[in-house]
Amino acid sequence: MKVLVAVKRVVDYNVKVHALADGSGLDVDGKPAVRRSLNPFDEIAVEASVHLKETGAADEVVAVSVGEAKAVDTLRVALAMGADRGILVHTDAKTEPLGVARLLKAVVDREKPDLVAVGKQAIDDDAGQTGAMLAALMDAPFGANANSVELKDGALYVSSQTVDGTELRKLSLPAVFAADLRLAEPRYVTLPSMMKARRKPVETIEAETFGADFAPQLKITRYDAPPARKAGVMVGSVAELVEKLRCEAKVL
Ligand code: AMP
Predict the structure, then answer these.
(1) What sequence ranges are listed for the domain Electron transfer flavoprotein alpha/beta-subunit N-terminal (predicted)?
(2) Is the backbone peptide bond immediately before 174 cis, with ω within 30 degrees of 0?
């Protein structure tokens, strides 16, 4: 049982990102360099994948990233968390979900995993599309918003939260699932595990060798900062608060 887990290098979630004044992009490429890290949902996907291995349900966990050479650092974090080896599909080109899904499909054709784990969304583009697109390209079932995953009797059981409660789905293999927030709590990466990860193999494949079309198809026309929030109002008493809620906000 082989699990392939897709990990993306994104701007760290603690960084406050600003739009450039002319609206042409985000101010993330200047100096000093903005901190990048493993996409938080992918951290959860790695944890869930490694857990499958640790509980004997899976034999190997392979982490794959599409992007620039620095994405090797991201792969090393996945390896420190317990993945066995890494694959970097190297490109300096700007990538979009469909292009990434096509490159991941090429890796799937090569690696033939039983299971592919992705994050529910990458926090830089918030697209939430790559996993579903990959599943479609693989003609495989997709377990969206996975809150729990279990490999049993040659199938993957995925549960996810719906408005009415919990939905449990049975997916035939190979399958793709997307990690939601509650799926797993990522382990803390220690220095010794990081040192150990340095000895694990990472293969680099140039994206062009796959012959997949990953040219951008979307054009973002403008970035604008969110409107500034209005200052709050201090009230002197509960009675005044109730009065304002009733007469001004009209919510009572
Ligand atoms: P998105 O559709 O961009 O929100 O990404 C959803 C998920 O697809 C991410 O959480 C990753 O697991 C995977 N993914 C997206 N882009 C990449 C990438 N460049 N390299 C590896 N995995 C990616």
Answers:
(1) 29-214
(2) yes
Mutate which of 47, 90, 94, 130 for ligand 1? The one with the most ligand atoms within 8 Å of its CB, which is: 130
**Coil, helix or strand at residue 135:** helix
Q: Give whole-number Cα distances, 50 to 45, 132, 145, 218, 245, in Å.
A: 9, 22, 18, 34, 50
Per-residue pLDDT at 62 exceeds 80: yes
How do the domains of the chain map onto residue ranges?
2-224
The tokens describing 196, both together, are 């150990």
The pLDDT of residue 204: 98
**pTM for this entry:** 0.91
- Provide the CATH number for the domain formed by 2-224 in this structure: 3.40.50.620
φ, ψ dihedrals at 50, nearest 5°: -65, -35
- Sequence-ordered list of residues with C-beta below 8 angstroms from that of 77, at least 6 positions apart, any chain: 7, 37, 38, 43, 189, 194, 197
| Residues having CB within 6 Å of any atom of ligand 1 | 6-8, 39, 41-42, 45, 65-67, 95, 97, 100, 118-119, 121-122, 125, 127-131
Taking the C-alpha atoms of residue 177 and residue 125, their distance in angstroms, rounded to an integer, is 19
